[in-house]
Each structure stands twice: as C-alpha cells, then as structure tokens.
Amino acid sequence: MATVFTDMTISPEVVLPVAPPERSVADLLEQLGDVPPQRVRMVPCPGTATELGLLEARARGGRVCELIDGTLVEKTLGFYEARVATRVSFHIELHLQKARSGITVVGGDAYMRLFPGRVRVPDVAYVARERLPGGHVPRGPIANFGPDLAVEVLSESNTRGEMSRKLQDYFAGGSQLVWYIDPKTRTAEAYTTPERHTEIGEDGVLSGGQVLPGFELSLRQLFAEADEV
Q: Which residue from 31, 45, 92, 223 has the fewest beta carbons nearer than 10 Å?
C-alpha cells in the first residue's frame, strides 16, 4: 500500500541505491541538468539527501535548496530576479482578491513536494483553492502538492537542461501552466505541457488561460515596474 503524506509531515527516509563506483561528478551534473557544480551541495552526500536534510541545510546555512534524486541543489535568485518575481506575485494577488479562487506564494521558503523524493521551490506559485488540503493553507514546512501555475524567473546559473527537468517535474506534480520569464531578454515562455509552449516577446502578455481565467500581465509593464525606484 502506498504511503500517503499529509502537509504536516516530512517524508520518511528513503533508501536510495548506492551509485556505482565508476560514476563520476560529470555524470551527476548531467543527471541534474548540467547545473553549475557550485550549486550542488556535498552534505549530505549526493544521492543520500532526504527532506530532513533539505530543511537542515536551510536552518544551518540559510541555503534554499531543491531535492532532486537524493541530491540537494542550491536555488539561486538574484536581487533583480527576485524583484520581478515579487511583481508577478503582486499582480496575481490583485487578481485573486477579485476572483477568490486560490492562493499565491513567493518562493524562498515555499517548498513543494511534487512527488516522493522531489521537492521544488518555484519563484512564484499559484494553487487553486480546491487543491488545498481541507481548503486551508498548509502549515507544515513542505506542502504536499505542486502548483497549478509555476513561475520561474531565469538567472545566469540556470541551464537549459535544468529548466527542462523542472518542466517535467512540475507537470508530473500536477501543474497545468508554467511560465519561464527571462529578465535578460525581457521575454517569456508559457508552457501548457513540457513539449508545448508559446514564446512571448517584450510587447506580449502573460495570460492565465484556463488556470487563472481573466488574468493578463504585460511583460513591458512587468519590467517597467521591476526597474522603478
């Protein structure tokens, strides 16, 4: 019988297979999507990390990490990227005040268990009310569900392989829409499946589609607000 985790629990220790001795660091980095090696935490040893280790890394060194295949990968978000994420969250919140259809959270401490052994921290996440356990905001350290809408603001250290893996994870965890926002080019990509996406230029609009009906946000407006001092 499958174990069911509530939003108040941490997944029990998972016994993971020991990597063969011929496995190299290069193999590990490739598996993780070619992330920069400085983002891969060596404690706990890659392949043995659990959700408890994820939370201990945060408590011990203030590092926000994601749990991927038993490995902790540090999540990086620069000041400007965080500013963009905050503005996206602000506009979604304004929309939700009228629609009252769910909640939105900004990443940092928003750990979300997409499925056993996989914990992601989206930069912004929207969750429909009906997917909240008991209709309430979870109080545990790790939410036991994925976002309906996941938003990632790309930083210099994000690789194409890493973001491809995230797409697979988000949709496997129940997401229906994923936005990748690129501050460098001031463009975005909106995914409705891992294979199907729409490219959005600087003059384009982020649309909530069926996930957030009626929501629209101009990219030009978004970046103008992020630049404002």
A: 45
Number of structural domains in the chain: 2
Q: Which domain holds residue 84?
A: 79-227
Q: Is the peptide bond before 116 cis (omega within 30 degrees of 0)?
A: no
54 Rama sector, left if φ>0, alpha if ψ -120 to 50, beta otherwise: alpha
Could you tell me if residue 42 is inside a domain?
Answer: yes
Asked if 54 and 103 sit in the same domain, the reply is no
Tell me the C-alpha distance between 201 and 216, whole Å.
Answer: 14
Same domain as 88, residue 67: no
pLDDT in tens, 40-98: 999 999 999 999 999 999 998 888 999 999 999 999 889 999 999 999 999 999 999 88
